[in-house]
Amino acid sequence: MNKIDYIHQVIVLLKRLALIVLVFSLTRLIFFVFNFNEFLPWQGSEVFRSFFAGIRFDLSSIYYFNLVFILLSLLPFAFSRTRQYQQVLKGLFVVVNGLMAGLNLIDVGYFQII
């Protein structure tokens, strides 16, 4: 594998991880919107700090839950560029992160119950 292909592979990985950070931020925003009355009276700066702290937490959980995916994406071998291998990686990515996003969204309704 040449250097340009590997750099492209790393860029694709970073885009996928950035997408998950965005999805998790959206789930946090959905949680906040649906449970807005529970958080009153909040200042705008407190909300911003909370979202920033949430992103920091998301980065660590994304790293740990996607560690296998990250390592498999960074393999510098020719087979890692094949269509079949990329499909397996895509499936792993969707399943793991779909479950994580679903678990984040469960709290939207559960928070109101407790």
What is the β-strand count?
Answer: 0
Percent of residues in helices comes to: over 70%
Report the order of strands and helices. Answer: HHHH
Globular, elongated, flat, extended or rod-shaped: what is the shape?
A: elongated
Provide structural commentary:
The protein is mainly alpha-helical. The chain is 81% helix and 0% strand. The protein has four helices and no strands. Helix 1 (3-34) packs across helix 2 and helix 1 (3-34) runs parallel beside helix 4. It starts with a helix and ends with a helix.
Secondary structure topology:
Elements lengths: L2 H32 L9 H22 L1 H7 L9 H31 L1
Could you provide a short overview of the structure?
The protein has helices at 3-34, 44-65, 67-73, 83-113.
Spell out the key features of this protein.
114 residues, mainly alpha, 81% helix, elongated
